[in-house]
Amino acid sequence: MKEGFRQSMAWLHTWSGLLVCWILLLVFCAGTASYYRNEITVWMQPELHGAAASQVSTEEAASVAQKAMEERATGATRWFISLPGERNPATQLGWSKPSQPGEKKRGRRGNFHSEKADPATGEVLSKPRETRGGEFLYRLHFDLHYISAIWGRWIVGFCAMFMFVSIISGIVTHKRIFKDLFTFRPKKGQRSWLDAHNVTAVLALPYHIMITYTGLVTLMFLYMPSGATAAYKGDQDAFFAEAFPGRSGDSKPAGVAAPLTPLAPLVRQAEQHWGGGKVERISVNHPGDANATISLTRAGGRDMSSKQPSLEFDGVTGKLLSTGGDALPGAAATQGVMVGLHVAHFGGPLLRALFFLSGLAGCAMVATGALLWAVKTRQKQAKALAAGKRASFGLRLVEALNIGAIAGIPIAFGAYFWANRLLPVGMEERPQEEIACFFGAWALAALIAQLRPSRAMWRMQLAVGAFLLASLPVLNVFTTESHLGVTLFLGRGPVAVASFDLVVLMLGLGLAYAAFKLKPLPVKASKAQKTRDAAKPATTTMEAA
User: Fold this and answer.
1) Are the C-beta atoms of 533 and 525 separated by less than 8 Å?
2) How far apart (Å, rounded) are the C-alpha atoms in residues 295 and 282?
3) CA-wise closest residue to 336 among 362, 283, 300, 296
4) What pairs with residue 92 in β-bridges?
5) Terminus of the chain with fewer CB atoms < 10 Å: N or C?
6) CA separation (Å) from 408 to 21, 401, 405, 441, 464?
7) pLDDT tens digits for range 262-308
8) Residue 296 main-chain phi, psi, to 5 deg
């Protein structure tokens, strides 16, 4: 009876983790990569690697951007200007135009245009290849793909809740949670996989709890709308106006032409209002219209909240209309900190690296948990397997899914980056073709794994993933003039590009090491050894890796 509650938690921990582990692994991998989504996008647009953006003040950058938009975005309904910052030296210009009758809409973003410009001159730095870059991976980890974003978020939220239950029940199940942090016994079969699972879980336990809980909080208005609906009597506009102060209203254009007020004085006024805080984003509704409005949002600093204050001005007179986010209510401030913790925009280079490593530990935790279930189940069926019987359908399915997810996802990532370099630059719908390569490679790996989930299949797919990732720096040498070698030996080139090459090289070498350790089993073996081997699935043979 003393072990009843703990044993029930062990059962809950096992099944709440197993049933959703493959989707969770995708979410963890994509989310971990998202900490460097800006750097990934830089790598995937090599045309911009040699372009050097000038360093100017935010006021001057805003003035130059306004002039460039007036020249290029005639007839636009909205302007979006992202001023240079710590991780982005260029000005990002974007604008949306209403679709003309008979004009074909371009995907979910509609008739939207975007380009990067020199902050000092407004000239386009270069015409980079079209790609979703790191933004695809960021969206993938909570929207999924090829399905409605709402359905994707519900699926991810469902899996995240299972993850949260699994973490809490895992803590209850552990008798020696602190000892598990320092215990790893290699080449011990099931015990080794259990140690690996425990170490990766306990080592980054605070991160795992935080990232799972805050992930649910980021979409809490979708998952739990009843409270806001009851409090605001179904008036969603009133709720969002109070929960997200400073949001521009959906004003309609007056239809009367009027010149837009200069942006530079508004930037100066906003930065004085924030005590020196810099402006990061400028959005203009109905530019050139009498009802134009301008919204300025402060750049994120080292504060944890994702909610940055904003100011809204009249687009013609420059009069301050409203302020938002200077003093948030307690609930809104708490929610902003939760979201900020999840996305980690407040972190410097070292903290982002720690978040990235903790994310990799989360990937390993999910993967070893799935492998551990297969190990334990195959050992229970050892006698039947030794007698020549086939593995149960459930065991075979889990082992195949493990190969398709654990070894297949690195293949998908590698195919995505290779497609970025090899697809024709001028190809139509190029970003979607890159994404299709990601899912096509993953689907192929998962399908092949279903045919024969064996030790040889593990080794083959790990080797393919290792080649695709480790060879990316070599591919970069032949397709661009800025790569790891240029940075190491000549001391020039974007640091983001060299860092990307180095990280994928290390990940590829890790996969290669795992594939190397999956040595073929001896041809001759005793009867007792065959019985022991029958208890070891394809997964357990990875223990040395």
Assistant:
1) yes
2) 6
3) 300
4) 82, 116
5) N
6) 14, 9, 5, 8, 9
7) 999 999 999 999 988 899 999 999 999 999 999 999 987 777 888 88
8) -115, 130
